[in-house]
Design brief:
The protein is an alpha+beta fold. About 25% of the residues lie in helices and about 30% in strands. The longest helix is centred in the C-terminal third of the chain and has 22 residues, at about 185-205. The N and C termini lie far apart (about 35 Å).
Length: about 270
């Protein structure tokens, strides 16, 4: 991991980033959503690896249209353009890949032992520290591009969270014992890990991602409540399938798989 010079109290330093993929990083102060900015760039032909970072988002969002709290200068709010050339059915694997990359970067840079909650959250101390949102665009029935959105709560204090999110969200600052996070260094590490895991995935397929994801998971071995379009059920999470589905063992011993849905740890 290369060291990156930056002031912890200042903004993300664009000039401190090493070239990664295209080396194109759009750094903005306040935007409605880095996802939407990245989509605009992708539609204009931005190459794979183009990243959009912002100091704040006024309309950041997570899965199911939920609002993502993105206060100014407190986190890493970024979106990355990907053009993987995959069948659409395999794109959920990219969410799991992003989880592995971001979790690895967080552990290495901050020492906070974050873990992955299926499918797209990172937890620390049992609370959410990062969310990942993957959105795909089709053209003539084929995958045109994907936008990987990543929101990391870096230097938020308890007071930075609205009342309804306290007890649910946490930050690297809180979980790291009050030590401020160098956001530029962490953002650089996230980009490096994303590129590493993405290139390995293109070369070797999903197996290395699956192995690392299972090792970093806080879901496996736990009793979970699963909400899917088919209804709600409880089971024990036991692993990932070779396609990236969550494998669940029911009380009957039967193994079922879930590709998308919401889970709660019991």
């Amino acid at each position: 991991m290369k060291e990156v010079n930056a002031h912890i109290s200042g903004g993300l330093k664009r000039e401190s980033f090493e070239a990664s993929w295209t080396g194109r990083i759009e750094h903005m102060d306040t935007v409605e959503s880095t996802q939407e900015e990245a989509k605009l760039l992708a539609e204009r032909g931005a190459p794979e690896g183009t990243a959009v970072m912002a100091e704040a988002q006024t309309g950041g969002r997570g899965r199911m249209g939920r609002k993502w709290h993105s206060p100014h200068g407190k986190g890493i709010w970024m979106s990355l353009v990907l053009r993987p050339g995959l069948p659409l059915a395999l794109t959920p694997q990219l969410t799991l890949l992003a989880g592995v990359a971001v979790c690895t970067a967080i552990r290495e840079v901050t020492g906070v032992q974050a873990g992955i909650k299926w499918p797209n959250d990172l937890l620390a101390g049992g609370r959410k520290i990062c969310g990942i949102l993957l959105e795909s665009s089709l053209r003539e029935g084929r995958l045109h591009y994907c936008i990987a959105g990543i929101g990391i709560a870096a230097n938020l204090t308890e007071e930075d969270y609205p009342e309804e999110l306290r007890g649910i969200g946490t930050s690297l600052l809180i979980e790291g014992g009050g030590i401020p996070v160098d956001r530029t260094r962490l953002a650089q590490a996230v980009l490096e890990e994303l590129e590493y895991w993405y290139r390995q995935y293109i070369r070797e397929g999903f197996a290395p991602v699956k192995e690392r994801w299972e090792a970093m998971s806080v879901t496996l071995g736990r009793q979970v409540s699963v909400n899917t379009p088919q209804g709600r059920s409880e089971a024990t999470a036991v692993g990932l399938s070779d396609q990236g589905e969550l494998l669940l063992r029911k009380d009957t011993g039967e193994i079922a798989s879930v590709l998308s849905g919401e889970i709660e740890l019991i």
